[in-house]
């Protein structure tokens, strides 16, 4: 039997990162934050990225090598041997990431890179298209949902904890724009895989959700 893949997809601020990390820790396997890959690429390419020609983009992307260092829950996503820092966590970088994430060359590059990691290591992979496009054969798939207001408040708190200024109303607007952009794009839109288990994260604690996820995973094994 090869490596195991568990996918967690859903919109911004729904709790994917906390839950994917927590599940990886419980199962003692690696955690892959694919949003960080799109964010890091957006950060490296800069604001002109959305207007770049495909060829130029492909060339720039080819120079970006993403790797997972280590195999367990303490594994770390690297871009060219460097840890992806917190500077990519702002909503501004998120919006730019969402713009380049609609482009075919970008998605193809990321998919190839993510599938390679999935062949090498057991993963909890979080993103938008993990269960639908990148790992359609994953052994266990989750799709997270929560009210936009709940998600904006959560994201706001996270940014404040990082010591950043955060205006909840502005974050709500940016998140809504990003969700629309991610849900309506032609390639790999944000939709639940038909075989994903849907979970509303608004009314449960992370520990309760992790218990449910772990039980569901145990049932599939
Ligand atoms: O998850 P996170 O908010 O960090 O993702 C940033 C952006 O990257 C998303 O809004 C989305 O446009 C893009 N993304 C994607 N597919 C993924 C993960 C992220 O298109 N698997």
Automatic annotation (TrEMBL):
One Pfam family in the UniProt entry: Cytidylate_kin
UniProt-listed InterPro entries: Cytidylate_kin, Cytidylate_kinase_dom, P-loop_NTPase
Catalysed reaction equations from the record: dCMP + ATP = dCDP + ADP; CMP + ATP = CDP + ADP
Alphabetical list of CDD domains matching this protein: CMPK
The UniProt record lists the keyword Transferase: yes
Subcellular location: Cytoplasm
SUPFAM superfamilies: P-loop containing nucleoside triphosphate hydrolases
EC number: 2.7.4.25
Keywords assigned by UniProt, alphabetized: ATP-binding, Cytoplasm, Kinase, Nucleotide-binding, Transferase
GO terms of biological process kind: pyrimidine nucleotide metabolic process
Enzyme class: transferase
Any one GO cellular component localisation term in the record: cytoplasm
List of residues binding ATP: 10-18
Residue ranges of every copy of the Cytidylate kinase domain listed in the record: 6-216
A GO term, aspect molecular function: ATP binding
Family: Belongs to the cytidylate kinase family. Type 1 subfamily.
Name of protein: Cytidylate kinase
Organism from which the protein derives: Desulfonatronospira thiodismutans ASO3-1
Lineage, broadest ranks: Bacteria, Pseudomonadati, Thermodesulfobacteriota, Desulfovibrionia, Desulfovibrionales
Gene: cmk
């Amino acid at each position: 039997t090869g490596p195991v893949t568990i996918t967690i997809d859903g919109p911004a601020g729904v709790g994917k990162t906390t839950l994917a990390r927590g599940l990886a820790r419980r199962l003692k396997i690696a955690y892959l934050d694919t949003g960080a890959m799109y964010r890091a690429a957006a950060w490296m390419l800069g604001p002109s990225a959305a207007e770049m020609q495909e060829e130029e983009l492909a060339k720039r992307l080819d120079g970006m090598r993403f790797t997972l260092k280590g195999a367990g829950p303490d594994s770390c996503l690297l871009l060219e041997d460097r840890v992806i820092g917190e500077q990519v966590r702002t909503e501004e970088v998120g919006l730019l990431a969402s713009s380049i994430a609609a482009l075919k060359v970008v998605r193809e590059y990321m998919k190839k890179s993510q599938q390679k990691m999935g062949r090498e290591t057991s993963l909890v992979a979080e993103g938008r298209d993990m269960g639908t496009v990148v790992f359609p054969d994953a052994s266990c798939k989750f799709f997270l949902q929560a009210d936009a207001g709940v998600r904006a408040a959560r994201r706001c708190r996270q940014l404040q904890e990082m010591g950043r200024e955060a205006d909840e109303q502005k974050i709500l607007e940016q998140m809504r724009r990003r969700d629309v952009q991610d849900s309506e794009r032609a390639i790999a839109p944000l939709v639940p895989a038909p075989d994903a288990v849907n979970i509303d994260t608004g009314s449960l604690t992370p520990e309760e959700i992790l218990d449910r996820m772990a039980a569901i995973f145990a049932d599939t094994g």
